[in-house]
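Weekly puzzle thread! Below is a chain. First person to post its structure in token form gets bragging rights.
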Amino acid sequence: MMQRSDKEIIYESIKGHPFFKGVPFHEAKKLMDECVIKHYEINELIYQASQPREGLLLLLKGLAQVYIFAEEDKLEALEVLSKGELIGFPSLADFLGVAKSNKYEEMVRVKALEPCLGVLIPFSVIEKRWEDAGVRDYLLQQSAMRLKDIYTSLAEQVKITRRTGESDRFIVRVQDVMSPLCALSEQAPVQEAAVKMKEHKCDVVLVLEAGRLTGILTKSDLVNRVLAKSKPYNLPVSQVMTKNPLTISRLEFYYAALTKMVLEGYKHLPVVHEQTGEVVGTVSLGNLLRKKNESLVKIVRDIEKINEDNLPSIKQVIYKILDTLINDKVPISHILEVITELNDRLAVRCVQLAVEHLR
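Winning reply:
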């Protein structure tokens, strides 16, 4: 049994709710005694994935988010619920005996986005009130509203996706554009690396020891570090590779990868599993640019080479890059990161020119 204060809170909050409307006072009180008041703090889980549902939670205060770990513990929000809405609605199908739980429903979780107050209405109460036409009409109305919201949300996502153009940058992840893993051991000769590149039609091989990434070797490395210096072809790749390369998660988004590569000055990045760290492939700047943003990379390189004569033109080019990123609907966080880095590099170059002028 609940404390009297809790029972009073429930009664005042839901006495006019369709579940109890029109019920004699003493019967309504008995039904309310079966209900449980629930308090949740920010980010507290309201429902765990695969948790058996005991009833429907009527949200009296606050906001709650329904989400799933769609792929390898990557959070994807489904909807946000507010005051007056029901949580645990899909479980009503099980209560009615018209559906069974599926793997997607078992992935669903609900958490509080802000302090929440709710009332758990057990299925035992719903069952006792099921014959009331008002209750059934209310649940039908809630179902129709929820379905409408889902379709509206889906339509918006499709609209955004189409608006972003050929690469669908809001939803494309690194794993969608990466190349298959091409790897060899540290002791493999550089000639074997060249053969692998030819066979796999790639410009890069990763170096692994006992499954652990230790280095990366590109076609440019073979030219600059082996051929140009007349080194033997049986030289172990460990002597010419770039050690401990920067990596990126396979679930990072398209423009996060592009930003990282452009600002750090890399043409290739090993792609790893975000949980295990296992290397699963490589992503190249060429995969990401698709020729459309080649000017962005060129400007980053040219900033370090500018002189007093072409300095004024660089500012206008940065503005053009900003305009391109905005038109491509790139997330604002990435735009800010790219433009800030370009301006910082420009400022450093200006200081260098000033120092050279004083000498």
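Puzzle host: Confirmed. Bonus trivia for everyone else. The chain has three domains: 4-163, 170-255+265-288, 293-359.
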